[in-house]
């Protein structure tokens, strides 16, 4: 039997019931971000085509495409009335869209210098099933197989090519990075709005759009670093979570050396601040830091002992160069944006972005101080630790003025900017609550300036835009002629051959060609073969090394005698070659191999020549 409730009888004097107004914010958010996403993607594609064809305004189109999506996304994420699930959807959309610039840059294969090395390493694992194989392009990456084994596994399970498997891993990692920052901010502030804004601010760092989206171990490791910190803060609240933090720490250690060291440094900052603040569970942070130290030290000593010599004392050289800048009125320093084709407004925002960061961090510290924030509660030590981490950004920004410090400075920003994001986000929310519309306009303006400026400071235009081949560029040095020469050598002579080459030829021969190139070092100066003057003998010690180590072929790129490398490197950083704006070689130095008895030409395509060594004639 079915029971039906009686229909209530409405009194004549009863007021008609007013239906609550439906919240359509989710619909408006979806519509606005969909339209903005399509428009932004079209503008980004147009920017790449304009750069490739050498006409139009690629920079303006690029930033129009980025800002037309990111600014509405920032509005919806920071809006007080936005529901938590909608914020999550906005962050996922933001993370996905922010991967688009790098995806459009090279969707079909490796392009950046290190991508060739990681692509080769992943293919070797897929085909041979062996970890820890030496990589001839970047000699230490074989000792950190986290990314390569994951990509090879995805490729094997899905049937994707190695490159497309890598894209799947990297896109997922990029989304998890944004969500990880939000979760970390939630751990500290317990406020979803602050968490979303912190994730967006972190996306302003100079590595976010291009460097930490490339096929490189940093791109996966930086995500593991953020989630490991989530594990640290949760373990401080509940020590039972310490196992998760240590597991994520181990995953970071086996993936990338610098990120492992960065994680250890961050853990030490947290432990020290908790100790100074007399937090009752500071011992947990110390235990995790000691565990991270043991894992990192053990791995570097027993599994990856070459890492220390590979990294080199960059900081020491950078400090010496920084001191020399004052001794010679700055002549030994770097000139920022020297010969850059970036427009003037992009260069100006690069400097304005640093000023904005300094002002905002200082304002956040004053805000904490005025609220007596450092004197109460359990969350304050965590915020102070992030303030210390964020403050590390500014000394590194100064080191970018030195040739040796620039690379390390750029790589450090992905770590220190997390601290900036986590301490500035509460200030942004407070400003929005106090001044609403005016604060929103001001903050979105600052957001745009910092996004443009940091990207301009972190990546030069050749990394960001396609264009004609440029000799000595880490992104445009690959030409069909070099690729064809590498494929010819592999097809006719086989793979895994030990060859002598310059940096750019070695990159292609070592990846697509499957060979084992060497580009020179202090202990194995193969560049002296090229530097030897016609009619002068090459060092007998070097010939003995080449013969004893079974090097079989020499690759000569004749462009070395006509052009200057864009990045001022022919072989490696410490090469004894003058970099004075003129080619470092003469045609005679490169043509001498045609007449040497122990070099036999077997291939010549115009710019690229390949010689076979015959050391037997020297005996």
From TrEMBL:
The chain crosses the membrane at residues 27-47, 59-77, 162-185, 192-211, 217-236, 243-276, 282-302, 350-369, 381-401, 413-432, 439-459. Keywords: Membrane, Transmembrane, Transmembrane helix. Residues 1-20 are annotated as: Disordered. It comes from the Bacteria. InterPro entries: Integrin_alpha_C_CS. This is Uncharacterized protein. It comes from Paractinoplanes ferrugineus.
């Amino acid at each position: 039997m079915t029971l039906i409730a009686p229909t209530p009888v409405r009194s004549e004097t009863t007021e008609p019931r007013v239906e609550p107004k439906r919240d359509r914010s989710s619909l408006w958010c979806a519509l606005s971000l969909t339209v903005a996403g399509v428009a932004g993607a079209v503008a980004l594609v147009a920017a790449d085509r304009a750069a490739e064809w050498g006409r139009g305004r690629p920079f303006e189109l690029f930033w129009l495409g980025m800002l037309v999506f990111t600014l509405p996304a920032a509005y919806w994420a920071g809006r007080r009335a936005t529901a938590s699930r909608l914020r999550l959807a906005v962050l996922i959309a933001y993370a996905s869209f922010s991967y688009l610039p790098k995806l459009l840059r090279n969707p079909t294969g490796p392009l950046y210098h290190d991508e060739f090395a990681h692509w080769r390493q992943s293919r070797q694992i897929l085909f041979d099933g062996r970890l820890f194989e030496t990589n001839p392009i970047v000699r230490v990456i074989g000792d950190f197989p986290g990314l390569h084994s994951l990509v090879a596994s995805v490729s094997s399970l899905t049937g994707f090519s190695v490159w497309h498997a890598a894209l799947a891993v990297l896109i997922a990692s990029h989304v998890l990075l944004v969500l990880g920052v939000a979760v970390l901010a939630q751990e500290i502030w317990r406020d979803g709005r602050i968490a979303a804004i912190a994730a967006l601010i972190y996306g302003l760092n100079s590595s976010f759009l291009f460097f930490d989206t490339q096929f490189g171990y940093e791109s996966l490791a930086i995500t593991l670093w953020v989630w490991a910190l989530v594990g640290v803060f949760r373990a401080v609240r509940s020590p039972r979570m310490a196992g998760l933090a240590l597991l994520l720490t181990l995953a970071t250690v086996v993936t990338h050396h610098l990120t492992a060291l960065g994680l250890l440094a961050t853990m030490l900052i947290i432990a020290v601040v908790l100790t100074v603040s007399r937090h009752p569970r500071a011992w947990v942070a110390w235990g995790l830091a000691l565990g991270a130290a043991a894992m990192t030290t053990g791995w570097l000593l027993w599994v990856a002992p070459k890492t220390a010599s590979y990294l080199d004392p960059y900081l020491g050289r950078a400090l010496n160069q920084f001191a020399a800048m004052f001794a010679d009125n700055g002549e030994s320093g770097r000139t920022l944006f020297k010969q850059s084709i970036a427009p003037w407004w992009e260069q100006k925002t690069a400097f304005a972005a640093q000023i904005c960061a300094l002002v905002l961090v200082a304002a956040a510290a004053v805000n904490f101080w005025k609220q007596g924030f450092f004197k109460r509660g359990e969350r304050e030590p965590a915020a102070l630790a992030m303030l210390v981490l964020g403050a590390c950004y500014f000394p590194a920004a100064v080191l970018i003025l030195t040739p040796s410090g620039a690379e390390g400075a750029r790589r450090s920003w992905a770590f220190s900017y997390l601290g900036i994001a986590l301490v500035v986000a509460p200030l942004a929310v407070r400003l929005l609550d106090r001044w609403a519309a005016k604060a929103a306009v001001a903050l979105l303006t600052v957001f745009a300036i910092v996004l443009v400026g940091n990207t301009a400071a972190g990546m030069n235009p050749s990394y960001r835009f396609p264009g004609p081949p440029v000799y000595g560029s880490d992104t445009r040095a690959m030409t069909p002629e070099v690729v064809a020469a590498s494929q010819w050598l592999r097809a006719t002579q086989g793979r895994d051959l030990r060859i002598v080459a310059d940096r750019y030829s070695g990159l292609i021969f070592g990846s697509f060609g499957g060979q084992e190139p060497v580009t020179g070092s202090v202990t194995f100066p193969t560049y002296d073969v090229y530097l030897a003057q016609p009619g002068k003998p090459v060092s007998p010690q070097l010939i003995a090394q080449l013969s004893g180590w079974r090097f079989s072929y020499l690759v000569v790129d004749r462009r070395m005698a006509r052009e200057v490398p864009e990045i001022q490197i022919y072989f490696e950083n410490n090469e004894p070659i003058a970099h004075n704006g003129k080619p470092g070689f003469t045609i005679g130095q490169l043509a001498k191999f045609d007449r040497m008895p122990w070099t036999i030409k077997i291939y010549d395509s115009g710019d690229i020549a390949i010689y076979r060594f015959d050391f037997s004639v020297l005996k």
